[in-house]
Sequence to fold (264 residues):
Amino acid sequence: MDKIDNKVIWITGASSGIGEGLSYALSKKGCKLIISSRKEDALQHVKAKCAHPDLVKIVSLDLADYASMEAKVVEAMACFHTIDILINNAGISQRSLIADTKLEVFKKLMDVNYLGTVALSKALLPEFIRAKKGHFVTVTSLMGKFGSPYRSGYCGAKHALHGFFDVLRMEHAKDGIHVTLVCPGFVQTNVAKNALVANGNTQNSQDEATKNGLTVAHFTKKMIKAIENKKFETYIGRGEVKGIYLKRFFPKLLHSVVLKSKVK
Fold:
């Protein structure tokens, strides 16, 4: 196990939810943090609540702006002159049927969840190669392993992350670079409230499954352990995690189970 204490960690999507919870948990471990999102005011609030705000730097970031990623890496590297771990946590979900959803919504889901994450990781990759060390931790979803109605574009983007980062791990193991894919189930965040609906607006309502999910504190504790153990993949949730194994061994049964669950 490689203890995470005192490492330099860059977290995207740090203004709320899992990213915010990670910021608090990692600050308690003495980590030097670079926290990013589009919402600088919210990041200032998170920084102030960290155990060691003096060890927290803010780099505002919009994943949809691919062209800015190399400059953002330069800005982040200037904070502590090195980065040990990049936690790709930022993303956006979806709640709409395929037939009703505008193509622009699918594009936005890919831009933010997949291409933005790829662009940022690719921009940081040369620094990891030069240092002969580094750890990409990418928060995908159980929806990156199997599908569910109303989440088609979200599932597609999350599946794509698995393909990309599995290959990155293979190509750069020789450079001392590690990749961990974290697949959350239901966690008590605003992911459902912020999800895009068919016309591109936000849903603005919580769903029961998310409301009854793991607490962020419980989730982040398990996630940090998986990072320290350099797991290739980890699945964190409750009963919904069983879908991983049903998909692998009984895909038709999973199809029936998901349709009967009526989770939206």
Q: What stands out?
A: The radius of gyration is 18 Å.
